Structures are given as C-alpha cells and as structure tokens.
Amino acid sequence: xxxxxxxxxxxxxxxxxxxxxxxxxxxxxxxxxxxxxxxxxxxxxxxxxxxxxxxxxxxxxxxxxxxxxxxxxxxxxxxxxxxxxxxxxxxxxxxxxxxxxxxxxxxxxxxxxxxxxxxxxxxxxxxxxxxxxxxxxxxxxxxxxxxxxxxxxxxxxxxxxxxxxxxxxxxxxxxxxxxxxxxxxxxxxxxxxxxxxxxxxxxxxxxxxxxxxxxxxxxx
Length: 220
What we know:
Strand content: 15-25%
Distance between the termini: 25 Å
CATH architecture: Alpha-Beta Barrel
Structural class: alpha/beta
CATH topology: TIM Barrel
Number of strands: 8
Order of helices and strands: EHEHEHEHEHEHEHEHH
Cofactor: Mg(2+)
Protein name: Thiamine-phosphate synthase
Oligomer: single chain
Number of domains: 1
Family: Belongs to the thiamine-phosphate synthase family.
CATH class: Alpha Beta
Binding site for 4-amino-2-methyl-5-(diphosphooxymethyl)pyrimidine: 35-39, 67, 106, 135
Largest sheet: 8 strands, parallel, barrel
Radius of gyration: 16 Å
Number of helices: 9
Shape: globular
Binding site for 2-[(2R,5Z)-2-carboxy-4-methylthiazol-5(2H)-ylidene]ethyl phosphate: 132-134, 168
C-alpha cells in the first residue's frame, strides 16, 4: 500500500546548508518524505548526490522521491518521482517505473487536476499557495480561496486523489489549509531559512497531527 505523507520536504540548495545536510536535518526531526530536487546539476552529479541523499533518507525510514529524472529514479530504485508540467508524461513514467512506485504531479488549476486524475498517479502537488523564492517559473498564486474553490470542485466531481499544498506555506497557515480538505503540505524555504530548522520541523509535525486529529473528530 502506498502511503502519502502529510509533510513533504523538497530539497533546495542554499549557501549555508548542503542538500545532504538538509536531508539529515529534516529526517532527524521526524520528516518522513523527501523530494530530491536539483534542477541545476548534470545527470552524473545529480545521480551521485541523489544516491547519497537517498541513503540518508532510507536510514531514517523516509520515503525518497526524485524530482523529474525518471531514469535516475529507476536506476537508484527510489520510491518514486514527482513530475512537473514540462517533465516526462506520467503514463510513460508509470511504464518505466512499474505499478509499485509513487508518481506525483504538479497542478495549478482544477483543469490540471481533472486531466491528471485520469492518469496513473498517486498524488498532486497543487500550488503555489503564495509567492515562493525557491521556484523560478511560478504559476499564478492560488491563496486560500483558490484551494477552497478547487477542493470543492474536486468533491463535486468525485475526485479523491491526495492533494499536497505547496508554495510559501508557513506554520500559521496549516489550520486553514487543512480545513480546505488537502491531504498534506510541501515545504522547502520556510525550513531552510529558519533560525532553528529542526525545531520548526518538530512544530510543523505537531501542528499537522493536531489539525488532522481535530478534522477527523469533526467528521465523526
């Protein structure tokens, strides 16, 4: 059974934290999902850094997802891939990786979700919630109202694929975001720019657990 975590950490190079340091830091804090994203590396350098990062993630029992490079994910036997709009077609990626691997895709609109829901994928990263400096080609900002609108349309069309909110999300956004019906969140810059990244990870995980438990009780 494929389990989609409620907190996804996306690696992003910074001047003060290497990718390996980021993976070690967040998994030590309890984060159970790493998306390895390094658009700037050659295939050889990407493969080497991804392999080292995956070993760290696996040592801490974290799911390891590779952004974009499907053949590297296949070679390293990663847990899956995340594909953007300009990356490999999810149908082809599924043929390459097999049914047991996780495939996630990026969406910005309900039309994106409607299209992706017909493909063999496991979750959708929907965003951006607000502006984020960690991505250069930014789609239109959704804001809370955008998530509310899209999640309602999903319910109206009986689309139940897990939605991961992404893009500039902060700790105090979590309650409102989870109340829209999203499955989880993806973070990067909020953690790496924090004065105490490990403490922030711990607080985010506690807030997710509290918010999720509250939502479950409200549905009973």
